[in-house]
Amino acid sequence: MKRTTISLPDDLAASVEREARRRRISASEVVREALLARLAATEGGRRRLPFVALGRSEHRTTARDMEDLLRDEWDEARLR
Questions:
Q1: What whole-number distance in Å separates Cα of residue 49 and Cα of residue 55?
Q2: DSSP 49
Q3: Can you tell me the mean pLDDT for 43-64?
C-alpha cells in the first residue's frame, strides 16, 4: 500500500474524523472508501452506472419514484 499525504479543508477533515469515530474505523479507511466509491471502475475500465437500463423496469411508477430508486441504488453502490 502506498502512503499519500493530502490537504483537506478543516470542515472536510472534521467530517472524515467524525465518520471514522462513528464507524470505529480509521480516517484512512474512510478516505479510501470515499475514493473507491467516487473512482471505482469495473475490470473493463468503465465505471458502473447504477441507473443504466432503469427505464426498462416495466414498472409504471418509475418516473414518480425516480428519486427513491436512485438513492437506493447509490446507497447500495456506496456500500460495495
A1: 13
A2: -
A3: 65
